[in-house]
Amino acid sequence: MQFDSIIxxxxxxxxxxxxxxxxxxxxxxxxxxxxxPWLQWLSTLLLLATLVYWSIRLLLYLRRLRASTPEIH
Length: 73
Known about the structure:
There is one protein chain. With 73 residues, the chain is mainly α. 86% of the residues lie in helices and 0% in strands. It is built from 2 helices and no strands. Helix 1 runs antiparallel to helix 2. The longest helix is centred in the C-terminal third of the chain and has 33 residues. The relative contact order is 0.07.
């Protein structure tokens, strides 16, 4: 059980780090003079990847919840 808590904490920490890193990357690249449409594409791609990640996590949670709930007939 303790190992699962550590894994869960690391996953949340990694997600927070990636969120911070992509914002930092977008600001840094815009300071280098990269074109704005390219940065908008990168930002959209990162947002889409985050939405897909959380959708998968939600689906897995709902499946686990459904499997652990006894059915009432």
